[in-house]
Amino acid sequence: MIRPARESAELSDDEFAELIEPTYQEIKNYLENEFIYEFFAKCLSTDFNNDSIWADSNLEYEYRDAIAFLENMPDYKKIDIEKLNKVLKEKHSLKITSVKPIGIEKI
Q: Which domain holds residue 18?
């Protein structure tokens, strides 16, 4: 759900602990337990299949090299909203209804 706008932009410590911290933890858990393995496996398999891993490399270097790709992700303006909506629909049963202000609905 999207919470109503607030007059104050500041969150109290209690609001942060109740609303934001659990959200951050859930996303962090996903990144650490699922995303990173899928992403790193894709990087390694692509490098291997394209003969672009050097014999003197090591797994830590390959990991750090893969993470560097994330730092160069496309600018927000290049995000395809229709593709994003497709992923939201297929994996999360959600749809973006408005970009500014943001609107999301369950489908």
A: 12-73
If one counts the domains in the chain, the total is 2
pLDDT tens digits for 12-36?
888 889 888 999 999 999 999 999 9
Sequence-ordered list of residues with C-beta below 8 angstroms from that of 43, at least 6 positions apart, any chain: 62, 65, 66, 69
d(CA 68, CA 71): 5
- The pTM for the full model equals 0.77
Nearest alpha carbon to residue 43 among 64, 73, 71 = 64
Dihedral of the alpha carbons of 75, 77, 80, 82, in degrees to the nearest 10: 140
Q: For residues 19 and 2, give the distance between their C-alpha atoms in angstroms, rounded to a whole number.
A: 12
Round to whole Å and give the CA distance between 107 and 94. 5
Shared domain for 60 and 97, answered yes or no, is: no
